[in-house]
Amino acid sequence: MKNILIITVMFMSWSFILLNHPLTFGMILLIQTFLISMITGMMGLSFWFSYIMFLIMVGGMLILFIYMTSVASNEKFEMSKMMITIIIIMMMTIMTTLLSDQFFSYLDMKNHEMSQNNKMNLMTMTKFMSQPASMIMTLTIFYLLITLIMVVKITNIQYGPLRQKFYEK
């Protein structure tokens, strides 16, 4: 399952290059955030870290979505024929890979290896707030606080958070 998610993330990265509309960038980023949070949740013993990461990214994407809809509200959303053909080719490649017998035998072998590795990972897993990681977490929180203060100081409260619309009479 994790291999399928990784293949899908790589496919989304390739399709990101071919897009040209800001709202499709946001959609691809949101899908990639969901897939990466699923992968990190499967790699760990609990999903709490991936859940928090997903919520933070969705909050940022909502702000970007509001800003982009106010700036580029009347742009047409079109997909090129090249993009559609590349999506179809990539999906067919993924489907043929998943349907082959060699892939399933490889997954069975990897599943056996993962069950043995999980027993070893239980002993070596450290908590996020242990001594080495707590300094990084504290620095990240402090960086976000300083960034928040700088953004509040830079924006002019009289004009509002988004661009100001002038109406001619």
UniProtKB/TrEMBL annotation:
<keyword id="KW-0496">Mitochondrion</keyword>
<feature type="transmembrane region" description="Helical">
    <location>
        <begin position="12"/>
        <end position="36"/>
    </location>
</feature>
<feature type="transmembrane region" description="Helical">
    <location>
        <begin position="48"/>
        <end position="70"/>
    </location>
</feature>
<protein>
    <recommendedName>
        <fullName>NADH-ubiquinone oxidoreductase chain 6</fullName>
        <ecNumber>7.1.1.2</ecNumber>
    </recommendedName>
</protein>
<feature type="transmembrane region" description="Helical">
    <location>
        <begin position="82"/>
        <end position="100"/>
    </location>
</feature>
<dbReference type="GO" id="GO:0008137">
    <property type="term" value="F:NADH dehydrogenase (ubiquinone) activity"/>
</dbReference>
<keyword id="KW-0520">NAD</keyword>
<keyword id="KW-1133">Transmembrane helix</keyword>
<keyword id="KW-0249">Electron transport</keyword>
<keyword id="KW-0813">Transport</keyword>
<keyword id="KW-0679">Respiratory chain</keyword>
<keyword id="KW-1278">Translocase</keyword>
<comment type="similarity">
    <text>Belongs to the complex I subunit 6 family.</text>
</comment>
<feature type="transmembrane region" description="Helical">
    <location>
        <begin position="133"/>
        <end position="155"/>
    </location>
</feature>
<keyword id="KW-0812">Transmembrane</keyword>
<dbReference type="GO" id="GO:0031966">
    <property type="term" value="C:mitochondrial membrane"/>
</dbReference>
<keyword id="KW-0472">Membrane</keyword>
<dbReference type="InterPro" id="IPR050269">
    <property type="entry name" value="ComplexI_Subunit6"/>
</dbReference>
